[in-house]
Design goal:
Helix content is 33%, strand content 24%. It is built from seven helices and eight strands, in the order ααβαβαββαβααβββ. It starts with 11 loop residues before the first helix and ends with a strand.
């Protein structure tokens, strides 16, 4: 792929941190346990946005058949594999080579064909019907440049879905003080100052030529776990299209 004209976005320290967790990524009780609990909620939202954007029947098993998808900051493939099962031709991109190695091996074990790349999205030049990036933008060097690079990957009539923590007192308490402090999340995973509010993310999206078509919160309760909610104070999802 020819190099796109976008500023580099990878933070090497962040890539090293997540690469060190690679071997444990698919263990639902391991260091990525929180992601395993969060992923069904994110997938439910992505499926709803797919249905709405392309007018797909909710009962259709492969709504992305004939479409391409890229997951940026894919880790070991927690989002890539479900997208492949929904019928998409999937590309997964991550900055940590260890993550890509684990992702490739796991996909083979599942009988899935996924194109995994160790790269910076700023260096890619592609066009995808669906662009996803989950809990990534808060880890890059320049979120505005990162979103611009994501937008460059989006095909005409494409759909983008992002997920990220909000910068609130609740997110600091839940994700850092309690989550990292009690060991539910690996220590050093988050820098609260890099969290983006929904309005900040929408502003970056507009600058990248994108329009927000939906945003929804992810809440947590002891009884129900993670669930989609109107409350965006902890974490939120955002769906975007070309303006």
């Amino acid at each position: 792929m020819a190099k796109a004209r976008h500023a580099a976005t990878i933070n090497p320290a962040e890539a090293e941190h997540f690469g060190a967790l690679a071997e444990d990524w698919w263990d639902p009780k391991g260091s990525s346990a929180m992601l395993h609990k969060l992923n069904p909620v994110r997938l439910s939202y992505v499926r709803d946005r797919i249905n709405g954007h392309w007018g797909v029947e909710p009962r259709q098993l492969k709504p992305l058949l004939g479409k391409s998808a890229i997951d940026v900051g894919c880790g070991a493939g927690l989002m890539c594999e479900p997208l492949a099962r929904l019928g998409a031709a999937v590309t997964g991109v991550d900055a940590a080579s260890a993550n890509i190695a684990v992702a490739k091996a796991h996909a083979v074990g599942q009988g899935l064909s996924i194109d995994y790349l160790c790269a910076d999205v700023a260096d890619l030049c592609g066009q995808f019907d669906l662009v996803t990036s989950m809990e990534v933008i808060e880890h890059v060097t320049n979120p505005e440049a990162f979103l611009s690079a994501l937008a460059s990957q989006l095909a005409p009539n494409g759909l983008m879905v992002l997920s990220t923590p909000n910068r609130t007192g609740l997110s600091r308490l839940a994700m850092i003080t309690l989550g990292e402090g009690l060991g539910a999340i690996p220590k050093g995973t988050h820098d609260w100052s890099k969290f983006l509010t929904p309005d900040e993310l929408e502003s970056f999206a507009q600058a990248a030529g994108l329009r927000v078509v939906d945003r929804q919160g992810i809440s947590f309760s002891v009884s129900a776990g993670f669930n989609l909610s109107a409350d965006m104070s902890l974490n939120y999802l955002m769906a975007l299209v070309r303006d």
